[in-house]
Amino acid sequence: MLGKILKIEFQGSQKVISLKLQSLWREFDNLLMKENESIQVFFTKVSGIVNQIRSYGDTILDKKIVEKTLRSLPPKFDHVVAAIEESKDLAALSLHELIGSLEAHEKRINRSTDHSWSKLFNPSWIRRRKKTNKKENLKSPKTEKVKENLIGGRITTKATITNNNQQGT
């Protein structure tokens, strides 16, 4: 008797429970991981919804959660999803094993992305690149057409003009 009273108090009537479950299932079905979201944050959202569904008495198998998680990942994980689907039995794959694998791949993806961005925005690398470009320009000014000028009826490059001026012509 007391259990029924507490259940109705905390969960509501059967009609309310049914409406809440419909809402939770809709939320679960529409859930997608955002491009800038981490696996851990996304898994926390999935777990929260799954726990609420289970608290209202509905059952959801881990297989369904694993499949939903794989479908909900952004395109940067496509190669990871393909590898997992090919190499593992999804029916036997535990949710924690999947999350562990996805987090490991996420770290690899972020490491390679972070490395290229840090190299791009590293001031010492930029200075070295500018010096290299200056050296390359000094070594072969005749091969690059910098600007064309019409001098004495012939087309010459800026490098040719510079060379002629240095030779005293």
UniProtKB/TrEMBL annotation:
Domain of life: Eukaryota
UniProt protein name: Uncharacterized protein
